[in-house]
Queue: 4 jobs
Job 1
Amino acid sequence: MAQSVGKQQPKPHLREEWVGRVYTFLCILFLLLTIFSMVYFVASKGLSTFIINKVNLAGFLTGLKWSPDSEPPLFGALPFLIGSFSTSILAAVIAAPLGFCAAVFMTQIMPKFGRKIMQPVIELLAGIPSVVYGFVGLSVIVPLFRDIFPGQGIGIAAGAVVLSIMILPTITTIATDALASLPAGLKEGSYALGATRWQTIYRIVLPTTMPALLTGIVLGIARAFGEALAVQMVIGNSPHIPRSLFESTSTLTSAITLSMGNTVMGSIQNNALWSLALLLMIMTFVFVFIVRMLERRSKL
Amino acid sequence: MNAKTADKIATALIVTIAAIIILILAGLLGYILIRGVGHISFDFLTSPPETIRAGGGIGPQLFNSLFLLVLTMIITIPLGLGAGIYMSEYAKPGRGTDFIRLVVEVLSSFPSIVVGLFGLLVIVNLFGFGFSLFSGALALTVFNLPLMVRITEQGLKSVPREQKEAGLALGLSKWKTIRSIMLPIAIPVILTGTILAAGRVFGEAAALLFTAGMSSPRLDFSDWNPLSPFSPLNPFRPAETLAVHIWKINSEGLAPDAPEIAAGASAVLIITVLLFNMIARWFGRYVHRKFTATK
Amino acid sequence: MKKTLMLIIALVLTFTLAACGGKNNAGSGANGTTNGTNAGNGGGSADAGLSGSILATGSTALQPLVDQASKRFMEQNSGVTIQVQGGGSGTGLAQVSQGQANIGNSDVFAEEKLEADQAKGLVDHQVAVVGIATVVNPEVNVDNLTKQQLIDIFSGKIANWKEVGGNDQNITIVNRPASSGTRATFEKYALGEKVADVKGSIQEDSSGTVKKLVGETPGAIGYLGFAYLDDKVKVLKYEGVEASEETVANGTYPVWAYEHMYTKGEPDAATKAFLDYMLSDEVQNGDVVDMGYIPVSKMQVKRDVEGNISK
């Protein structure tokens, strides 16, 4: 075999290299093409609300009233924006400490149990379909909140709890990775200096992994922001800014899923929903940008 | 308060919170499984669903989920591997590469509903694939691809530099080095990641509502010609997956036993995902042992 | 050596799969025609000799009925393939008017959703009647609501059950989204006017969720198609008239709507046969009744787009 390779080395060698390069390049090209067409199509659909239907952009972003079927139709998406932000940020507020503790537990306190049992189970959470989360939320969390708090049980609080469980795997996995990839010397040095485990975690581990932890939280928020079906089932979907955490409101995603199928493509009602999708997309860019900033800061 | 006490309190707190998480997880899984497992039987897993009468099963849906998974992976794996290899080995550091990396990152955090809508607009309507398994697989590819790219990159990064350089020093081409030296070492990481990514396909519903559709035409399980419209293997037929089916019967189910079917289907779904994870781990370890000859 | 072998196998697999992917892609255009011929061949041996493939898409409420009927129809006509899709009334109407689907299922008249010129080319086939009942939480001790009371409740003027003769309890509205066909029917025939969304009201598009929420939330009020009624929710009278099949059929209970199956122009043979089958006694007295709809043939009154009733 070595002989034959030696004989015809230059040509197949180069051709092989060429095949590899072209193949991988085509793959990346496909990827780029996909995302550009996605941005293009969603943007062209979403912008037509403003360009073709002449809806006022400022009014769209700051308006409080969403009634697409009234005369004249009103498109104020602010309640949805507020709903989306408050639900996903509250979800992160609940999930972040839990995720961090789980990660510390799995890497620093009981690594064996953590790796063998806890991590797989947490990853399993990521595989549970959002529909099931939504249904469990509607059957367990909503009645629970209805009994404990004034109101209908439905609303931002219920949505945030459901979402916090959904984003727990994201936050935990990233935190665990960050903690596990910490150079062993750093920790050992701290222990050698006589620091306790908590001191090591608090003074050494936490500051060094902070950017990664924040990245996890932002990604968690991003996921919560884009989650549709589970939220729609427990948030109530009223297009108003709620007076409390336990009153029906809407998010961008729930507004889209609720009405997309009932509206006719090309109509102003439908275009307005695409504008909401465009907002979602822009928010994705913002989240990615924040993650980038965090990563850059961690390098300094 | 001295450091020792603080340490003890903090440890206790963390352990408590971890215990609470485990309880929540156990409660959640238990709730789904206990409600559902009683309903699972061979008949339930194989018979077609009923619209209004009790006693329907989830046979076609289960098959659709698995088939869609295979289709998606057939499209995703070669593309994702290629793109990942390019990013980690061929791309020259610079503005262009940074930009591509940013794009991949953006794509990976797109909400599934946006992907679904894009699929509806472009794959279903513009390309004319209609509501079909193929459209669904393409839509799922869109959001599995960045994951796959990242996994491949991670896997390749984990290869010791010496091994890569040894390959190049032997006069192997870069592509050959990647294929025969780096990939085998990276495969356990890639494989585990891939199977975990596959779990997402299994549970995804929002994107599929708009692409793969919500109905399943009658299937003839004795007809395995992929071009026949009744064949389960035809990728151009509309198909309802298990997750979509759960969504449908929860929202519009008319059968008297709809809640039980939803519970049973949820349990089946979770058990499948669980099996998947276990197989991923076992297979990853097995391949690792085979390729690296470590015990 | 073993290592290389495994790797080669893995790679070969990857590449064949990739190639398969490509082939599938290219074959898609041809596949459509294969579909047609296959169906045609099958049709030769079928009893009725019909062949073709029908795509019906639209209303999720109507989907189970069409789905069920289509299964039986396909058993009788093995040459015909019928695919029934959900997606919502708007999607169904848009797709049928653009020719992407053969049949557009809708809860509302096409004129209410589409622009006039788009709706003109569509032919309406009314296959069933759906009655919509006002439902409340079982613990609400009110049995009857007048039209004015309903308007006041759904527009937020009445916020407590004691104002309509019930206990002192806040009213929780479980409404449908503004785009919903069920809501359009309810507003048009029960309220007689469009009402704005009340702050704090819940909106759900799916009947299952509406039923669950009304059944569990104290003081909740909503509306459901007759098919979904059972003892988990309490059905109210409207202006003293009970919501039932008879009262809808004889025109005394006004809150009902047709379920439409639209075709673009006159349907082809297979589609026409299927639509005829939908109106046959087998379906009308079987599946239609089973699913809680009212057969069109039973209706003693008719209604047009404007809502005018005629005997």
Job 2
Amino acid sequence: MELALAGNTSTLRKRLRTAALLFMLAWPAAAAVYAFLVLNYDPSLVSLADRLLPPSFAHPLGTDHLGRDVLTRLLLGARQTVGYGLLALIAAVAIGVPLGIWAGFKGGLADRILMRIADAFLSFPDTIVAIVLTGLLGAGLENLLLAILVVKWVSYARLARSTVLTERGKDYVLMARINGLRPGRIMSKHLFPHLIGHVLVLASLDVGKIILLISSLSYIGLGAQPPAPEWGAMLNEARPYFQAQPSLMVYPGLMIVFVVLLMGLLGDYWRDKFDVRKEVRP
Amino acid sequence: MSLLRAQRIHKSYTTGTPVLLDVSFALEKGQCLGLVGESGCGKSTLARCLLGIEHIDDGSLLFEGVPIHGLSERRLRPYRKHIQAVLQNPSAALNPKLTIKDSLLDPYLQFGDQVRLRHFQYANRHDFARQLLEAVELPAALADRYPHELSGGQKQRATIARAISIEPSVIILDEPTASLDVLSQAAVLGLLDRLREQLGIAYLFISHDLAAVHAMSQAIMVMQDGAIVDHFRKEELFDSERHPYTQELVAMFE
């Protein structure tokens, strides 16, 4: 009886969490629709007559120091910050996972070389590598993305490799060999399904970090360049006007916090859904 | 010509102690050859060598007169459609992330266009799973289930279905009933025996269970410390000239 009750509460809690998550995901979607329907400002349109306006019907969140509509820039900033963050992440997964599977499956010299390279990358903090690389390649969002890719593929390669290492000695891989499957097919059909859950969880936790990285590097001027509507860059531009119009810094900051939190929740949700914990701790 | 012939096989691991010592035998078409011995005597190593998972140090392995030892994975692949296997632990032999049907399909997707099937006629994937599950006496509804939803006996039947799907000439049965309960053991042995008669597949039946080997096989080999110490026809098990070790094994069952 007690057991059944506990089961019910936990399912209820899970359902509530799913509902909350969907509700939170609905907000950016609604914002995107709003942006599509309502936006009638050019995000880079400078109008000095309208600078630092308080919220009004025409400008729901007011205007910045160059008279640009803040809401427009915030919504388009989602595309820059989140969109580019996802892009960098997908590229990192697309490079790291196949390399890791291959290294884990082949073993030997190729594996050792790849893992030493990975160790070398891992020994520097993400932010330092990203700053150095963008410093060398020149400031700009494209170079920042490249730097993030260089920093991030390593953890996916390691994750894929360690999963493959635990799986490849199992009898079903042996049977796949006996059944005549080629190595490529063993990797894609038999080993890849074991990775998806782990990769999704790590990726959703990483998205938050990448967004923070893009925003913080843009804030110090190494990422998105003005007048691009990127949240970190907006924070930086608003800094001198903090006393006159504090909301200019509050809005982009809130957006970053909100998206990073949301991605963390999404990671939790996926972890439950794919039961990664249960597999890791049998 | 024998279907599968091993000639003076030697094998040792890096530690130097020999695991297989001068092992020779011949498996004839449609025959069940039993191999009995205690755990650790080298039975499974022999199975792995026959399957090309491990290389032998000396001697030769012939499939229909053609040497297949020492081949690279790529060169060995064409022979894999003739030599299939059922392993001891069915839970490990099925990928937990794939449905039963997806696991069953592996050999057929690889070799379906290279083999001429006499018994099975697959119209499509659905029909494929249905026929095979029927052949191993499992309900067709299991095709879309995952391994953890099946019992141990059901899982072992599924791996048997996978092994027979392309009608190989030989199946290496490495302790196929060791992880099953007594009732499932008897049922699976009965099934294997019927399938051999139906499909004309030869078995190398490896087990520590002399009674099971005796019930299944036409000829029996006894292995002790990597060497085959006795080799005889089923009827000769109780003869007085049996090797002392064989007599010891027999005595344990009486």
Job 3
Amino acid sequence: MILPRWAERFWPVVPIIGALLFIIALLFLFGADPLESLNIMFLKPFENQAKMLSVMAFWVPLTLCALGLLVTFTGGLWNIGVEGQMILGSLGASWIALTVDAPAFVLIFLEIIVAMLAGALWGALTGFLKTHGKVHEIFGGLALNNLASMLSLYLIAGPWQPPEGGSFRGTPPFQEAALLPRFAESRFSPISFVLTILAIGLVFFALNNSFWGLKLKALGKNARSAFLLGVSSERETIYAMMFCGALAGLGGAVRVLSWFDSLRQNISGGIGYLAILVVMLAAYRLLLVPFISFFFSLVLNGSLTLQLKTQLHSSLGGILTGVMVLFILLFGEASKLGFRKEVEKDE
Amino acid sequence: MHVELKEIRKYFGEVKANDNISVSLEPGKIYGLLGENGAGKSTLMKILSGYQPQDSGEILLDHKAVDFPSPAAALGAGLGMLYQDPLDIPPFSIIDNYLLGRDNRLSLDYRTVIAEMNEIITRYGFEADIHAHIDTLSLGERQQLELVRLLAGGAQVFILDEPTTGISVEQKDVLFSSMRKLAHEEGKTIILVSHKLDEVQELCDHAFVLRRGKLVGQSTIPCPNEKLVEMMFGQVPTRRERLPFDLGNPALELINVNISTYRLNVSNINLQIFAGEVIGLAGLEGSGQGILLRTIAGLIQPESGQVVVSGQDLTKSSYHKSRNFGVAYCAAGRLEEGLVSKLSLTEHMLLAEPTHTFMIDWPAARERTNSRIEQYQVVGQPESTADQLSGGNQQRLLFALLNPGLKVILLEHPTRGLDVRSMDWIWEQMYARREDGTALVFMSADLDEILERSDRIAVFSGGVMSRVVNASEVSVDQLGHMIGGQA
Ligand SMILES: Nc1ncnc2c1ncn2[C@@H]1O[C@H](COP(=O)(O)OP(=O)(O)OP(=O)(O)O)[C@@H](O)[C@H]1O
Ligand SMILES: [Mg+2]
């Protein structure tokens, strides 16, 4: 599909509007009042502090994963494994929370470090499989995602099960000192917010001002030329995966230490996959990522509220994000196929 | 078909790539389009072929104004172009590639298509094997394939942007005879963009000359080369004599080197090259010269033998290790191998430099880039991306990226796409590097260039380095015979 020029300028608004129109049509079809529904999804949360905090609590890990993905995408890597890296982060944090006895600040510090290391390890593994085993990062990532969630199920059902017996639902709640301090009885932790802002700065710096970022950029655009110019694709691939894994691992820690208070089944809530969509909708632009990520958080939280208020199923949020992505792919392809447009854009 | 371009303008920011150009082309003739690097030739031809729109001006086909939204639309109207850098999708077979260009068909009728292609291939004497995969084809074969596609698409006007750079002499002859046939027997219009005046004299009926985006002259052909050169540059460039140079210690030694690749085995290479020496590798396309260059660079591991650079054995060293040791390699495919389309000149510079800091000091890098591109006369800004440069300027950028103090420089088709003046300029820069004790090994399809620029010539045929001769002791004809495998 060829977009007119004005539409291109307002990317990513076009797919969002397209998806919204689609959803409005869908709401009509189900006999719901679209205006009322959209109001509940998008505007109401802004009037309610608790809702807003819940949106922000979801925003933190989603943004962290998306930031990491921005780095791997820059290097031309399809890091589907971000989901698994996040799960590993949550395992790392849980391990400290369940086994170490120390003052809160020591615990939290350790949890975060171990979570980031665990995520980085998982990322490095995918990178290593790619560079040394010729396993494409998509397949390696999927396999490791699976492995990570099996591992967490095993830990919940086995070594870390509650004393009253395994419920397969989760570990016992962590000691209070192990949890991130949260704001006003919500799930939102100001520390994690500060860390996310720092991560935005770090990624901005890495991609724009570090030599490493430049090497990744070259690799992502033309791996052969980059190699000839002296860039080692093997090393940089593994580093990029580790960088992303560390941020995703931090996201995983935030999930167990503030969204929940223990390690649960399905700890990631699909945030890893969602983050891929965020980055694509942001057209790989760092400064758009926090906003798109916020928008996604809003939609997904809003659709939960919607379900409570109107009986419409909460999968509406999922449908909305899914449709947006389809719209992106539809428009995104256009700019790849129509090389004519590329030429014009340079002017 | 009668083609007229009327007051075509195309600006890229400050750069006036085409500034009010008007030309008129008759059917049945072959036109040359000349001009120095960055004069605006490719820009004009890309406008004519629907690849990019003009800012203002008109294209008239048989006196009717037309406007092409895409190259496919232009081909539909009878205008076909062979781009300076072939735009292929590598891992397809030729037939698939051919069918890609003809998406009007729902079912793929292989048999008819093969018959159709074979008919075209025999009519024009092409040799491309249509069952082969594109990535195994030489540049010349890919080009023939592109021509077949344009012919089958019904092109009446053929635009060839520097078609003879990087193809073999035989392929060039086939190309030229097919061009003559198309123009003089079948009444098609041909436009040839070229820097090689001899070829223009040989093939064209009429030439247009561009300079800095303006049409500055035209002439019927034949006409004296000096006149064309003067129109191109505004004056006849003076050439400086190459100064003799005292060779130093051995810079590169190849001892009993055997290389085997899936295409060709290169056997038993023994060669000693001295600091400051320039060695030309002559031979038909794919006779082993390219493979040898890649082996010295560390991109291919030899099966046996030794590669020694400045006394250090680099036989087993990786490309990056050799590169750090001072062995530089410039491949022929600029935007595929060497440059990254969407990176700026400064970014290229930073990547290519031997030492790096963790953080990039952008203003300083910009300064260094500025002085480097000034030295190599790259027309562009430090912020320009590589694909915004004209073909010849991309080539100059490749040279600008070579660091000082190298031990060996390996070049594939070094002056591909350069105009006469910058060809001299680039060679001057290369000769200046002899002072650093740099040895230079290059391959070229242009025998004149090999004879003129090298001290010694290594002749290749079928994977064998059949002899090494002093450049001053052979003539073009003799060399031509040698590379054909005759003594
Ligand atoms: N997409 C672009 N963006 C910006 N500048 C461009 C772009 N394409 C071409 N130019 C500029 O326009 C000028 C003319 O370029 P063009 O490619 O037409 O030159 P040319 O005559 O084909 O030269 P060469 O012989 O080197 O191929 C150059 O200065 C070039 O930098
Ligand atoms: Mg050109």
Job 4
Amino acid sequence: MALLRATHLTQAARFLGCFKQTHLTQGFPQLSPCWRTISGGEYRRPGQPKEYTPIWKQFDFQKGVKGMQKHFALLKEEFLSRWTGPEGRPLVEHMLEQTRVIWEFRGPKSLENWTVSSDREIGGRSEAFLKLGRNNTTCQLYGTLCSVAPRDGETRYSGYCTLRSKPLKGAFDSKKHHDWTSFNTLHLRIRGDGRPWMINIGAETYFSHQKDEIYSYFLYTRGGPYWQDVKIPFSKFFLSSRGRIQDDQHALWLDKVNTIGMTLGDKADGPFQLEIDFIAVCNDRAHTEEFAYEVYKRNPEV
Amino acid sequence: MNPYVLTIFLLSLGLGTTLTFASSHWLLAWMGLEINTLAIIPLMAQQHHPRAVEATTKYFLTQATAAAVILFATTLNAWSTGEWAIHQMSSPATITIIMLALSLKLGLAPTHFWLPEVLQGLNLTTGLILSTWQKLAPFALLLQISPALNSHLLITIGLLSTFVGGWGGLNQTQLRKILAYSSIAHLGWMVMIVKFAPSLTLLSLLIYILMTTTAFLTFKTLSSTTMNILATSWTKTPVITALAALALLSLGGLPPLTGFMPKWLILQELVKQQLPLLATLAALSALLSLYFYLRLCYAMALTSSPNTLTALLPWRLTQNTNPLLLSATSMFSLMLLPLTPTIMTLLTY
């Protein structure tokens, strides 16, 4: 799925302003994480014109200078954080922590780490929006699902929407990963509307730009006015590649996790809503399962 | 893995190294290196996890590149001087190329980038083989060509490796990556001294193999791959916790443990060779490495983690029916310092 923020923008504005806010790398599209999607790596529906503004029209010196300052500051911080400890925090914290809240929605800036997408990119009619919830303490993903397939002759199914976190970027947009080796459970506090969602974790893959493999598990929301605490052990996540669940399963390695996301595609047309308070990881001492799915030999020797 | 197949791979590993040891012709030495690479590939890819396969691929590509460059340089040398014998390299350009290829094979800076990621993708036993056995063959070649090598290049590579190994390991919590950076640092020490006293390189290599074997076997016994899991080992095996802490300090080069021996002798030799600044810089870089070894000791033995258990694997207690290797290597890695004169006479040739 293309990582495009589906907002109320027009086609051209949607292309150029891949992000609604002024992005520091807008003067240098090559530096932005969305470069490939801008240049044509995302899905372009057959018949749609190829949109491309040449580089000399996008040049902005001030933004470039700010970008350089930001990246050099990040680089300096990366160098100096080594003296403090792993991941820039003291070792004692790393050894003692049993829970860590990774994403918390407390203010408009927290929404910048997330990307909302729906089947509008392939020409479908679902809509999905992301906004801050009440009191700026939660985020609300809402919209309408419509499983009418787009009439382009090649798409058969439609009707999905997804919320995905943006991967961590270090200095000069280098890849950084979440290191969750001290933990074994995902803890979410959500308030859904009874629909079944899928939680997708994207870990570091074999090739550097491979986006095929994802580890998923189900999230059944209860609906209703009460908050729901969901704890899913990482051993339950199963591997699927390009949407197909693989036979050769293996456990999710937690030392390089890139993104987490939630997808809705339950073929039920109509409005939906999901409110998220926080997403955390914790270490459940009583959970001893390594991997929930049997890995057996498909062609055993006789 | 099927025991017959495993035997074939392990014996091939032995064959490759032995071939390189026994060869005086560059082609045979190259063949030994290639056999080593190919034999360890299936061992690395045993786990059908994409990151394990990624580590295998990265390893294969770097080693194959290095072997190809060695072949290229030796062929150039044979073409220009007509000499295929290893110890009679005379062309300085080709010998520099071979040195760079060997540093890629060993994982010396600035060609060290593959080592932490590759080690991270392997299980501990294969990581042990990679860190110890696979270093022997390239070092055999290095020792043989050392008289003709450019000492500036060697010192640059050595010092850079010690600093990179120290700096890179500072932020790590994954034990395999820590051991990878420790390998880079130790290899740097070995390479610094190869021009002046090759026997010290050999001594350093053997002591390093001993200490790394201890470290890997300890981690394997404790089924730990991260620092947090190591922190709870005091609840499981207090004896190993105590000994392993000392073994890590030995890796860091603290007297009166064995690891001090190579560092002391290397620093002494460097000073004798009128290189006190280099000796100072090397000793300072050893402090960086010592910091992360100390951090592991701190996590393991000097603090009692309030958590009872952080890992799943120890629940399935595999019977460690043969602790002989771990106990022998840990004793050697702690107690050999008083035997320094004996070892020196054994290795001086």
